[in-house]
Amino acid sequence: MTSSENIIKDLRNDLAQASTEHAIAQVKSKYLGNKSYVSEQLRLLPTLSPDKRVEMGRELNVLKNQIENSITTAREELVAAQQFPVKDISLPGVGFPQAYGHMHPASRVLQETYKIFADLGFAVVDSSEIETDWYNFEALNMPATHPAREMQDTFYIKNNGKLDVLPRTHTSGMQVRFMEANKPPFKIIVPGRVFRNEDEDVTHIWAFHQIEGLVVGEGVSMAQLKGTLLHVVQGILGPEVDIRFRPSYFPYTEPSVELDCRYKGQWLELGGAGMINPIVLKNGGIDPEKYTGFAFGWGAERIAAIKYGLDDLRELWRPRFEFLEQFV
Ligand code: DAH
Predict the structure, then answer these.
(1) Is ligand 1 within 6 A of the CB of residue 173?
(2) 114, 189 in Cβ contact below 8 A?
(3) Element holding 244 (H helix, E strand)
C-alpha cells in the first residue's frame, strides 16, 4: 500500500469514530493541519528536482482533495443524523403510551363473521350508510304510517316536507337494492354501520354495526335458515352454543322469528330473521311464485358484548385505551 492509501484508510477510521463537530475538526487538523503529512510534504516540494516536484505535487493534491471530500461527507452525515436521530422510520413512535395497535373487538367479530359466511359461499356486499326512505322502509313493506317504523326512530331528513334520505336505520335497506341488480340464486351478507335516534344505555348505542343476510333461490327453506344460523353462531361463539327461534314480527319477513342463543347457560337475543315476504321479493323484481328466500340481521357490537362479556355496549366506542387494551 502506498503512503497515500494508508493515510486515507486511517482517515476513514478516525472519521468513523468522530461523532461530534469538534471531533471532526480535530481529524481535519490531524490530516491537513500544519504538522500533517500533507503539509510537511508540501513544504519539502521546493527541495525536489523539477521532475519529482511535479509528480509529487500532483500526488499530494489528489490526496488533499480526497481528505477534504471525506471530511465534508462526514460533516454532512453528522448534520443529517442530528436532524433525524431515529434512522429507521418504521420504528414505532417514541414516547407514546403504547407501541402497537390491534384490532378493535367489534371489528374482530365482523372479520370472523365474514370468514365464516365466506366459507359457506356468501358474498360480502358493500353498501351506503345514507339510504332513501323507499329502500329503508317502503320497499320493505313499511309505508309511512306503519307502526313498525317506531322501533327504528332515526334522524330523518325531509325534502319539501316529505321524508327523503336518512342515515339508514338497518342494513335491510340493501335487500331490495341487491334484488334489483342481481338475478337469483344468490347468498350475500351486508355488513355496515346503522344509526338510530336512541337514548343511550348499556344495551343501546346510537350508531352500531349490523350484519344483514339475504339468500334467494328456488326452494330456499326455513330449515336452511336455521341450519345456516346455527353454523354461524357456533362458529363465532363456540360449538357448545345452541340457538332457538321465537315467533316475532317484521313487515319484510313472513313468518318472522327472533333469534336467541344459549350462551353460558343463558338465553340471549341476537337478532331477527325470517322468510322473505313475497311483497319484498316483488319490490325487488323477483317472482315470488318461483323463488323463496330468507333474511336475517344482527348487531356486531351485541355479539362482541356476548363474546367478550361486556356489560356496557357504550364502552366499545369510547376512546379509552384502558378498556381497549384488554383485547390485544
Ligand atoms: N332489520 C332488523 C333490525 O334492524 C333485523 C332483521 C330482522 C333483519 C329480520 C332481517 C330480518 O333481515 O329478516 O332490527
Answers:
(1) no
(2) yes
(3) strand 242-250
Same domain, 210 and 265: yes
Looking at the structure, tell me whether residues 252 and 317 fall in a common domain. yes
Answer with the one of 19, 51, 83 that is the final residue of a domain: 83
The reply to whether 79 and 109 lie within a common domain is no
pLDDT one-digit tens code per residue, 122-179: 999 999 999 999 999 999 999 888 888 878 877 777 777 777 899 999 999 999 999 9
96 in any annotated domain: no
Kindly give the number of the ligand 1 atom that is closest to the alpha carbon of 274. Answer: 13
Domain total of the chain: 2
Q: Phi-psi bin for 286: left (phi > 0), alpha (psi -120 to 50), beta?
A: beta
Pocket perturbation via mutation, ligand 1, pick of 205, 250, 256, 281 by most ligand atoms within 8 A of CB: 250
CB distance 140 to 175 below 8 Å: yes
| Nearest protein CA to atom 14 of ligand 1, as residue | 272
Tell me if 170 CB under 6 Å of ligand 1.
yes
Are 316 and 266 within one domain? yes
